[in-house]
Amino acid sequence: MDWNVGGVTAGREIAVIVPCLNEAAAIGQVVRGFQQVLPEATVYVYDNMSTDDTIAVAKAAGAVVRQVSHRGKGNVVRRMFGDIDADIYIMVDGDGTYDPAAAPTMVRRLIEDNLDMVVGTRVDDDPEAYRKGHRFGNWLLTTLVTKLFGRTFTDMLTGYRVFSRRFVKAFPALSSGFETETEITVHTLELRLATAEIPTRYSTRVAGSQSKLNTYRDGARILKLILRLLMLEKPLALFGAFAGVFALVSIGLFVPIFIDYVATGLVPRFPTLIVSVGAIMLSVLSLMTGIIQDNVTRGRQELKRLFYLAAGERAATAISQSTGTGPARIARRG
Length: 334
Prior knowledge:
By secondary structure, this protein is of the alpha/beta class. Helix content is about 55%, strand content about 10%. GO terms for molecular function: transferase activity.
């Protein structure tokens, strides 16, 4: 495999960012693997207060090691994105399951196609690498996001991604745990960013390494995040659905009452009429809430887009200066 990406990465700073917790058995292999395929990159290991020898092993392998005291992958990602200043970010889990050899291809694709994110879609040839519960949960959540947001990725929950600077510096990173991949996906779909997927080999964990992912607990947290994001990003659709349900209930209750009234001139079920009126009021309130929240969401999306564009301008300036084409370099040369 051609690992030489120097031509397209000239003047760009590459950061390999590795969130990990108790990965002493695998972290050295991960660090050395990325150093081999991307010698020009700096490997950062962000340790989430491990109780084993993760820090010592990572340092011995040549990584820059930092610690994050707040537990949860989302908290680590927030810290990494805030701390590290680079032009290209490669985020990968520290468990040794992802193939470092795919990184140069992903980086090249990001640069040549001017993308904001390249997703490493997991391809496994060992049934033990990807447990059935995780596979089913990934499919279910990916399908749900597709239904809610119109499009998504083949592997929404992969931990192997390459980002542009403007993506990283415009991403709010609000989640705290393993639902951070879902938040990244929805952020990408919301801003309609340019992305691509590249199949990458996914292997079993090395001996002595254990998964920190709980299928049911973390699946429930991801589902909760999707519903919360639906309320924030698609409020008119959500509250409009509530309005439709309340309207149907109101109509279903009111029609028999109206028929009796036309036939007899009486309202024999007055409590039912009150419930019907209450339901139609809830329908109107839900619809108005959706309209108001939709306007708020549109304004927030415009701000996020402006932050994204501003981050892109800063990234372009940094690259031009580092390659000697920016004003600062030209001034120094003159």
